[in-house]
């Protein structure tokens, strides 16, 4: 298994690299709020649900292979975006082609906000907000959002980082629960992948909910200050760590690899030639799907 211990500056890099993906306004569904279309591919479903903790509407994206059938359990991949990204980060080729060929469902939550750290406190970004930033415009008695006058999925504004971290993790687990309820999911083949901040979040969630996952893939995962020891629960989960050889943060990933080796934590580590911090997202998909295809829970 692996992790990447990256400096705070890496999050800014991830923020820049994740933003270019499509954010076109989709046509609203009758009776539901408008949801951004997170991919130019019409097979990607842009969805939303009400996050009961705050009453906010949170987006997520879903891709369903045409090979998925009600009478056959389907493998599921939960995909976590990098800092500043959105649910569409992984909803592009070649990920969609590989998911279609392998009969996968891909579900991509927002993680509560674009800077939500998926519960991994090591990647809390104090520079993107202030603590104690409950909404000043909420009606009396309404649930309080960690964000002040901030639309879901946007960085900035007043932020209670502890609550945002908690809600970010909960959003992932909410989306996972909804997908498992809606589809016939193969409980032996539920996988987790993430990029940068999402890569660190994937490792955190894999550790906390280790009984769920058949495999985890961290693509240039960013985890400043992440504490890794021999008692990590995810040591029993197959883990793949990938980084591009041109990633400025490659040194921290290499140090993580060495740390995991020193703790005898089994993992696979891959450096991809010619790829940088952003290029590893789609540049690593073939490796990720091959890795997932080799692992299933007993």
Would you spell out the secondary-structure blueprint of this structure?
Blueprint: H1 9-18, E1 24-25, E2 36-37, E3 44-51, E4 56-64, E5 74-80, H2 95-102, E6 105-109, H3 161-182, E7 185-195, H4 197-208, E8 215-219, E9 239-244, H5 250-262, E10 268-272, H6 280-283, H7 285-293
Parallel strand pairs: 5-6, 5-7, 7-8, 8-9, 9-10
Antiparallel strand pairs: 1-2, 3-4, 4-6
Please summarize what this structure is.
26% of the residues lie in helices and 20% in strands. The protein is α/β, with parallel strands linked by helices and 298 residues long.
* Main β-sheet description: 8 strands, mixed
**What radius of gyration results from the CA coordinates?**
18 Å
Widest sheet, order of strands:
3-4-6-5-7-8-9-10
The total number of structural domains is 1
CATH top level? Alpha Beta
Name the beta content range: 15-25%
For the residues shown, what is the average pLDDT? Answer: 80
Sequence of secondary-structure elements? HEEEEEHEHEHEEHEHH
Give the N-terminus to C-terminus distance in angstroms: 19 Å
Task: Give the low-confidence spans.
Answer: 1-33, 125-144, 148-157
CATH superfamily: Alpha/Beta hydrolase fold, catalytic domain
Query: In CATH terms, what is the fold-level topology?
Result: Rossmann fold
Per DSSP, the total helix count is 7
CATH-derived architecture = 3-Layer(aba) Sandwich
Give the total of beta strands. 10
Residues in helix, %: 25-40%
Q: In one word, what is the shape?
A: globular
Helix-strand makeup class:
alpha/beta
């Amino acid at each position: 298994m692996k992790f990447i211990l990256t400096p705070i500056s890496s999050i800014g890099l991830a923020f820049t690299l994740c933003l270019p993906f499509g954010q076109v306004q989709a046509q609203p569904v009758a009776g539901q709020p408008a949801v951004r279309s997170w991919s130019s591919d019409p097979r990607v479903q842009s969805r939303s649900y009400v996050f009961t903790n705050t009453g906010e509407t949170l987006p997520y994206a879903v891709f369903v292979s045409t090979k998925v059938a009600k009478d056959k359990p389907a493998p599921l991949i939960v995909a976590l975006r990098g800092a500043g990204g959105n649910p569409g980060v992984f909803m592009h080729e070649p990920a969609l082609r590989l998911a279609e060929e392998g009969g996968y469902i891909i579900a991509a939550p927002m993680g509560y906000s674009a800077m939500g750290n998926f519960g991994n406190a090591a990647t809390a970004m104090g520079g993107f907000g202030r603590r104690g930033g409950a909404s000043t415009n909420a009606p009396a008695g309404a649930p309080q959002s960690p964000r002040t006058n901030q639309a879901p999925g946007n960085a900035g504004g007043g932020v209670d980082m502890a609550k945002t971290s908690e809600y970010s993790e909960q959003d992932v687990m909410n989306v996972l629960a909804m997908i498992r309820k809606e589809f016939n999911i193969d409980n032996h083949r539920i996988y987790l992948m993430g990029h940068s901040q999402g890569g660190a979040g994937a490792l955190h969630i894999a550790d906390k909910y280790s009984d769920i996952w058949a495999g985890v893939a961290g693509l240039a995962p960013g985890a400043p200050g992440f504490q890794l020891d021999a008692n990590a629960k995810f040591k029993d989960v197959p883990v793949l760590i990938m980084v591009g050889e041109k990633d400025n943060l490659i040194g921290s990933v290499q140090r993580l690899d060495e740390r995991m080796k020193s703790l005898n934590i089994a993992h696979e580590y891959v450096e991809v030639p010619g790829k940088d911090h952003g290029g590893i997202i789609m540049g690593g998909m073939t490796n990720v799907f091959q890795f997932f295809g080799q692992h299933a829970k007993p």
